[in-house]
Design brief:
The complex is a heteropentamer, with two copies of chain A (about 325 residues), one copy of chain C (about 375 residues), one copy of chain D (about 325 residues) and one copy of chain E (about 270 residues). Chain A has about 325 residues and is of the alpha+beta class. Chain A contains nine helices and 18 strands. Chain E has a single domain, classed as MetI-like (MetI-like fold, Orthogonal Bundle), CATH 1.10.3720. By secondary structure, chain E is mainly alpha-helical. Classes of the chains: A alpha+beta (about 325), C alpha/beta (about 375), D mainly alpha (about 325), E mainly alpha (about 270). Chains in contact: A-B, A-D, A-E, B-D, C-D, C-E, D-E. At the D-E interface, helix 1, helix 2, helix 3, helix 5 and helix 6 of D face helix 1, helix 3, helix 4, helix 5 and helix 6 of E. The structure holds adenosine-5'-triphosphate (2 copies), spermidine (SPD) and magnesium ion (2 copies). One magnesium ion binds next to helix 1 of chain A.
Chain lengths: ~325, ~325, ~375, ~325, ~270
Amino acid sequence: MTAVLFENVSRHFGAVRAVDSVNLAIAEGEFFAMLGPSGSGKTTCLRLMAGFEQPTGGHIEIFGETAEGVPPYRRNVNTVFQDYALFPHLSILENVAYGLMVRGIAKAERLKAAENALAMVKLPGYGSRRPGQLSGGQRQRVALARALVNRPRVLLLDEPLGALDLKLREQMQEELKALQKSLGITFVFVTHDQGEALSMADRIAVFNEGRVQQLGTPEDVYKRPQTRFVADFVGSSNVLAPSFVHSLGYPARYASLRPEALALGEGGSNARRFSGTVVATSFLGATNRLTVEAAGTRIAAMLPASAAVPPQGTGVTLSFAAEDLHLMDEAA
Amino acid sequence: MTAVLFENVSRHFGAVRAVDSVNLAIAEGEFFAMLGPSGSGKTTCLRLMAGFEQPTGGHIEIFGETAEGVPPYRRNVNTVFQDYALFPHLSILENVAYGLMVRGIAKAERLKAAENALAMVKLPGYGSRRPGQLSGGQRQRVALARALVNRPRVLLLDEPLGALDLKLREQMQEELKALQKSLGITFVFVTHDQGEALSMADRIAVFNEGRVQQLGTPEDVYKRPQTRFVADFVGSSNVLAPSFVHSLGYPARYASLRPEALALGEGGSNARRFSGTVVATSFLGATNRLTVEAAGTRIAAMLPASAAVPPQGTGVTLSFAAEDLHLMDEAA
Amino acid sequence: QEPLTELGKGEGEVSIVAWAGYIERGETDKNYDWVTDFEKQTGCKVSVKTAATSDEMVALMNEGGFDLVTASGDASNRLIAGKRVQPINTDLIPSWKTIDERLQNAPWNTVKGVHYGTPYLWGPNVLMYNTEVFKGEAPKSWNVVFEEMTLPDGKSNKGRIQAYDGPIHIADAANYLMAHKPELGIKDPYELNEDQYKAALDLLRVQRTLVGRYWHDAMIQIDDFKNEGVVASGSWPFQVNLMQAEKQPIASTFPEEGVTGWSDTTMLHADSQHPNCAYMWMEHSLSPKVQGDAAAWFGAVPSVPAACKGNALLGDEGCKTNGFENFDKIRFWKTPTSKCETQGECVPYHRWVSDYIGVIGGR
Amino acid sequence: MSVVAENPILARRTSTFGRLSDYFWLNPKLFLLMLLAPPLPWLGIIYLGSLFALLLQSFFSIDEFSGLINYEFTLDTYRQLLIPANFDIILRTVIMAALVTLASALIAFPIAYYAARYARGKWKALFYLAVMLPLWSSYLVKVYAWKLILAKEGILNWGFAKLHLTWLLDAWLALPVVGGNSLSISYTGTFIVFVYVWMPFMILPIQAALERVPVNLIEASADLGGNPGQTFRHVLFPLALPGIIAGSIFTFSLTLGDYIIPQIIGSSRLFIGQAVYAQQGTAGNIPLAAAFTVVPIVIMGFYLWMAKKRGAFDAL
Amino acid sequence: MRSDRSSAPMSLKITAAAGLLFMHLPILLIFVYAFTTEEKSYQFPPPGFTLNWLAVAWNRPDVWAALSLSVRVASIATAVALVLGTLCAAAVSQTRFFGREAISLLVILPIALPGIITGIALRSAFSFADIPFSFWTIVLGHATFCVVVVYNNAVARFRRISGSMIEASMDLGADGFQTFRYVILPNIGTALLAGGMLAFALSFDEVIVTTFTAGQQQTLPIWMLEELVRPRQRPVTNVVAMVVVLVTFLPILAAYYLTREGDQIAGAGK
Ligand SMILES: Nc1ncnc2c1ncn2[C@@H]1O[C@H](COP(=O)(O)OP(=O)(O)OP(=O)(O)O)[C@@H](O)[C@H]1O
Ligand SMILES: Nc1ncnc2c1ncn2[C@@H]1O[C@H](COP(=O)(O)OP(=O)(O)OP(=O)(O)O)[C@@H](O)[C@H]1O
Ligand SMILES: NCCCCNCCCN
Ligand SMILES: [Mg+2]
Ligand SMILES: [Mg+2]
């Protein structure tokens, strides 16, 4: 069943087209990511689902029911806010029980449910603290528990990991993914971190300027970007101009070539190759990054750390498997 | 010549040993990075160099001259603050010219120098704006220009890229590096992002709890961590317990093993290998990450995106080149 | 407006705008209380609003909400002209007949034969001085407050004298000029032509250089004599009495130029809400006991000659001391108007108001 | 553990509040109207209306003899406002207000600076209370306390005499304009009391503004070579300015309008507040009183406009 | 925030201390004269010490009457200011509309204009509308300039309640009224209390506006003015002033701690 349906949904603020004719069909139980640069309309889309914004055009359905004109408190949809938005005057347990309280669930019952939810996010026994006494990662989990305790049909997450540092972020990514799998709730996840979207989502919608640029599985958007924007934004791909692509023996179209698809040397017989000069190298730990200038185009190659790194200024030949070059839909 | 010398420098705040007996010798013209987790004393070290803090013990020299007791405004050292600290009431041009103004440089001259500095950071013509009208990346560049216009002998940068998003961050990393090379000024750079430190620095000091854990080139600290802390913090290494290391045929010491050093399968004759069960996989774009449990230890392996990913639950064998396992100094 | 023809029951309260010290209920000195008994007898609760100048009284009456006012001559005619007060029915005031005949038809309470109120007290503006500074000898002339001079204690009078902070004080200057500059031809200090007026203002400008602060409130003037080193000023007998009671070295005198003075009338507001109580108060205010007590307290002369005899507080010499026989020598306050008897065209009161502010401000 | 409904869209609420809530959600404009319904008429109609009515009166005149208002449009009153005696009052008051504001800022700044930048924990609370106590102590009693201090027979004179410094005080009082017979009868005295009474209003806004100046801007200035004096001049002061302006709204306006202080401590030369009070209360000349009030209204109008531009309202 | 260098320069300490001294010595004087044996004048130094005036003040019915009127006026004015100030603050900080800026100006106006203007404007409006002076005319005047303190406190707090907190509440199923009851009120409560206390103190000490809107009624400050000009027992005024200072001190102390804690609560989400 379709959990969230957007039909030509627009949300304009005066002249700003925050969301512009978007079509989406998010399936029940899906982990759906919305990826895009700042200002591309991701949050606005989420707010349209939650009910904080009303569309200026188009139609929204949630599990088949029309959502326009329904205030947020009547939607069985919950949100994990980027800054968590925990209630500072309530204890953790009261925070988590809030949604049940305003629905009139009896005290004993709602506190029990809240305890369970806290246990689920691995914070049993934290109930009596105040939000101010928790670390960022812990608060994030409380926000999650507070949303999940209401058993929403859809959970919306707006860059929930944005404020966490790298280590914690990686840990939370795993936990979130596991939780979603075990609960089976539809997750709609907003991020501007491509790595996060790729590693977590079942499907990704890439946004730019209020429109969906591409919608597909992580592999689709990573390996088969349909537009230059997607190629450029998702992972740090080399976007090659039609003339250069033509010189490699392909049709004169824009193409993307992933840095890690490139290898030093001539490669096998099936490989395509080009020569250039090394203009920069940098050590990235697991890999070395080589920037090569070939026919006026700067191309990045990611080499395994084990390979020797040619110094700056040397001429090198780079090769790649013919199928790794991805021609884009956009004409020259 | 030594630009900055720390001899047993300590800075204690009451019981907190923010900086604890640190020895450093930063060479002139060097790009020196200080890496470490939050609260490890990086900023305090920088503030000791700038003169905002006075050491509670030890001795500091800047280009051979004693620095203790010299106020910040008499040190030819400038700082790029993490949040830029631009003066909100002054225009961009006045911000950049500030250091020259307080030194009494004539108006025409200092404005010209400021214009040049703005051009150098690729912001010509932005002079008449106010800081509030610039984006994060632009502000960062203004902060840089404001420091550089004074021609400091040492430039201190406190997580200058922390607030920028990924794309901008990568771009600024390259620009900073290029600028440092062309100007030849000593840069002391604080970060808690290991990737940033590895790719930019000539040498890295890894801090933990106010002490320098390891000091060396990026390759040193990445490939040859001397302590478990460094191995764990720099890149997401697998830190193996002595018993497990022993079972692989090494002395019973702690050891680090980089995820990218691992490959699926038996490997060559020289390879070491172990078997385990896949417990998680995730797609990271350029690579796939495999988490394998072997003998009760969780080990991460990074496989090229081209390799097939065994599904969760299958038994696999992983192999690595014998020399890729790095035994650490720490005893069991 | 027709006056009340018949006295009814009291309304339970009456509010009076009065000069400080005019209506006492024993709060400062238990012996001086002529309110408590009235309240007991009539059931009319008395509330008093003190005003420091005639202008203030007129303003308060214009604003309304009061029943009675103890207006001086420079206010009473304005109130009558502005229809702020109503004619009274003297038949309803049995003691009317006991009033000093000199006051029954005075021009400041009777217009075209119609009576607007009952006379209350009258008295002079005396020259109050510090007996220590003047070595026990009363100053003979008002010149101590108009011209710079060395006082008997050997110090200048500069900064040590005061003057009244009301435009009517211009008349005191004119009164002084009548004696010292007869060539100006001033006949009445309240009727000044442009030249006479200008001369008076010039005199006051000299005075400004001598005065530190003008006095506005009787109590504050007392304070200034005690704490600010003020040694001479035009004043009311009231202040003199109070300070003498406190054993301060203070006395007063009638200088040779003569004095201005006031004769006050209890007048009834045109829109009085409590006319019956008001009539009762007017009657009460004329009783010899009240007249004597009030005259003693304020240092004034009663309007009812009977009060001069046998009042314990006033004493038998009281009326004489306070100037009963000087009635004709006192130039009573009245409102200057442009049409005047003595010279046809005079400077009207509104000019006095703004010019006096200017003089005090240093213009 | 499923304690709530499974429906994707929950049913409408039937309670009154629930329905009202739905209604306001769908009609946010109406909600806004509800919020503004009580305060707007109060401030916008009663208060502003009264102000306009007052201003209107300044276009009437008064019958000089009876003191009754003549309801006919005229600019006479304004002409009267500008005669030298009245103009002096305006000038005197504005100069006094400006000086009081300046002095208040000078005295308040170090206190605010210390409280904002150095006082911590208990000391900070103590500072706050030390500022609040005089601020909220009875205004009248404070003024009278100063009368005792400044009077010729008062404490200050007594103190100067004990210290054998009477000559110094006399020398000051002998000066033109600021001098006088005694401190309580001089502009100096009026000024001191004004400063005393209004200065606390200056401290808190300056402190608030200073607390909002990030420490690292001060460090940045030092880092770029600015010595403490330069840092103060070029960074700290400009950034504290909104606070000073916010505070000066009080000191300026309160001085412009006060009639009690110059009456008690002063030389009988009127200030605007006294003139308004006297014209209204003593002389009953409401039109002239209204015309006098136009002066502070215009001045404060400009002041507020400037303050708004400088972002000083946030520091109030 | 990182602290400055641990201690202040000497010159700053001295000027700040001198400033504080200047603020406090005259107040001390008020206290001293509450205990003098001299009744008629303020003799310095006081000739003797007595506690007598406390009892005298206690037994003066006019003090109690004035005090009672002041307390009643201040309470009602504060209550009105709380409602109006909160509504204004909510409208200005929670919604966006044409004229928003004008409202913040309108609220500040009664305190930014000298009290005498507020006073005579209201007075002439009363007389124009034929409204007689009463308890309510005083309250009206006071509430008008008290709104701003409540407003300022509430706006500052509203600004710190992140918008997402209110959305979070609605998201979790609370309607507008529930959100007000369970989220907004608890979060602005202390700010309102603090604003209310300041409003009370402001009203309690107001002389000028009261002079014009009270008619013949005596609030405590009006009583004091009368008493100071025409003293009967001077030290009684000082006793009353001292007690008022000490009593207003408590709400100020409370307001301080309330907003303090509020800062911590509201800042905790960051
Ligand atoms: N209430 C609003 N009024 C006016 N413009 C708005 C409003 N909300 C959003 N916008 C504009 O709509 C566009 C999309 O905003 P949105 O917040 O959806 O972007 P986003 O993709 O979430 O960005 P980010 O990654 O920075 O959060 C932006 O240009 C934004 O300025
Ligand atoms: N002024 C101070 N007073 C007390 N403790 C301080 C002060 N400055 C720093 N510290 C403490 O010193 C330790 C080191 O702080 P420092 O700011 O140098 O860390 P850091 O490595 O820069 O951390 P981060 O990455 O979070 O910026 C921390 O525990 C900090 O709390
Ligand atoms: N202590 C309070 C000082 C009185 C200030 N009143 C201001 C009211 C402005 N209308
Ligand atoms: Mg967003
Ligand atoms: Mg730091």
